[in-house]
Amino acid sequence: MTDRDGTTEPWQESAPGILRLPSGRLVRGRALRRPLPGGPRPTYAVHLLGRRAPEVPWESVWLRWPDFRLPADPDTARAVLTDAWERAADERVEIACGGGRGRTGTALACLAVLDGVPADEAVDHVRRHYDRHAVETPWQRRYVRRFSA
Question: Which of 61, 55, 98 is nearest to 81 (CA)?
Fold first, then answer.
């Protein structure tokens, strides 16, 4: 989805939920249980849920990822997250789960790894720049540490 003039304006870095990656890419993390924030809509979203995500009026993909767990298919997760990272160079990419912290934080940390943050520093990076409670479980932290670019 592009804006009316055919371009895609980037996220506003100061908007709620925006994570700036070291490369300058901006990605929005969000809780699906909360109302859609004001401002521009995503052009692409990754929904991290245990069951099929609700329909949205922009391009999205559902990644089966039960609450407090890890992705059901790690190979698919890697492909989806790599695609999201690549799209974030030119599109408004949103990563979202129910609460916007555990699964979303884990996925954002994986994007940080793809962006060059060392895997053992990615959780701290997301906690500093997105949400201090991001990545909620020990196995989510371990997943990020084992995720490689």
Answer: 61
